[in-house]
């Protein structure tokens, strides 16, 4: 299925528009099933979306106690470290809404119960995902309603960096060592786990992301261009600002807002 591309004027408007879309998607899922699940991303736009969600009155339409929150990747650092994606998400949104703490699923920290061993931490998170999966998910992870991904200038998503072994891994969660972007040790969902989501939203703002966006939409292979392998079961959305959309390949339809 070809991704849908939506272009907004700048990062601020992009964040507000994605936050509004997220409210609608979560409310729809909760109306249909009684609960919803989202997978968060770290990074500039991902965190800006959470801050925009915290700032909008529409957030009150969400039943926060009936929302499961997961992460697509994490920097393997101590609890509360400012570079952890969890810390950014809590500061921007999670600490300001009435979530059920049992339904918030951060990836383990380096000072957690795994003695600083990222492989054990990855197995722990995989077990948590497996426990949350229902028979109708037909796999070891839940069918997340929305999974958001930032994208790096090198086309990495989550902590899946080009040419690294994690891109060949069939397990749902892996430890990543030697990441080219600091910190070097990380945990990440793999592409099979990402593809379990109903909807995958790729978020990108700024000219440094334009080439990665182009490659992601150009039929490149996921080992060289990880973002190209991130697809949802029902839909894949590229939610961009104009600068990130500046090099879209010819023939890609886009919907642009003013
Ligand atoms: O390290 C990471 O980078 C990506 C992209 O971040 P950005 O600041 O360039 O938007 C992010 O999606 C990922 O979660 C994070 O761990």
Which key terms come to mind for this protein?
3-stranded antiparallel β-sheet; 7-stranded parallel β-sheet; alpha/beta; 18% strand; 27% helix; 258 residues; Rossmann fold; 6 helices; single chain; 6-phosphogluconolactonase activity; binds ligand LXAUTJHC
Describe the structure.
InterPro entries: 6-phosphogluconolactonase_DevB (IPR005900), 6PGL (IPR039104), Glc/Gal-6P_isomerase (IPR006148), NagB/RpiA_transferase-like (IPR037171). Pathway: Carbohydrate degradation; pentose phosphate pathway; D-ribulose 5-phosphate from D-glucose 6-phosphate (oxidative stage): step 2/3. Keywords: Hydrolase. Hydrolysis of 6-phosphogluconolactone to 6-phosphogluconate. There is one protein chain. By secondary structure, the protein is an alpha/beta fold. It has one domain (4-256): Rossmann fold, CATH 3.40.50. 27% of the residues lie in helices and 18% in strands. The strands form 2 sheets. Strands 3-2-5-8-9-1-10 form a 7-stranded parallel β-sheet. A 3-stranded antiparallel β-sheet has the order 4-7-6. Strand 8, helix 6 and strand 9 (235-241) form a beta-alpha-beta unit. Helix 1 crosses helix 2 (44-55). The two termini are 26 Å apart. The relative contact order is 0.19. The mean pLDDT is 97.
């Amino acid at each position: 299925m070809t991704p849908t591309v939506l272009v907004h004027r700048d990062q601020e408007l992009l964040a507000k528009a994605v936050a509004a879309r997220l409210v609608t998607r979560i409310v729809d899922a909760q109306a249909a099933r009684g609960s919803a699940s989202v997978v968060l991303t770290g990074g500039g736009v991902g965190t800006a979306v959470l801050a925009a969600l915290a700032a909008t009155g529409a957030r009150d339409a969400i039943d926060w106690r009936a929302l499961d929150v997961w992460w697509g990747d994490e920097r393997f650092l101590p609890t509360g470290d400012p570079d952890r994606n969890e810390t950014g998400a809590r500061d921007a949104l999670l600490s300001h809404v009435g979530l059920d703490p049992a339904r918030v699923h951060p990836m383990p920290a380096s000072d957690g119960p795994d003695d600083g061993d990222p492989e054990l931490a990855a197995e722990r998170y995989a077990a948590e995902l497996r426990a949350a999966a229902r028979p109708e998910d037909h796999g070891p992870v839940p069918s997340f309603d929305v999974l958001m991904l930032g994208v790096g200038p090198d086309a990495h998503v989550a902590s899946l960096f080009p040419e690294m072994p994690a891109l060949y891994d069939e397990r749902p969660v892996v430890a990543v060592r030697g990441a080219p972007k600091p910190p070097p040790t990380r945990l990440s969902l793999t592409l099979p786990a990402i593809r379990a989501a109903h909807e995958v939203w790729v978020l990108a703002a700024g000219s440094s992301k334009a080439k990665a966006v182009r490659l992601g939409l150009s039929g490149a292979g996921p080992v060289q261009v990880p973002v190209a392998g991130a697809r949802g079961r029902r839909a894949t959305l590229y939610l961009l600002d104009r600068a990130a959309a500046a090099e879209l390949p010819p023939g890609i339809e886009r919907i642009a807002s003013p």
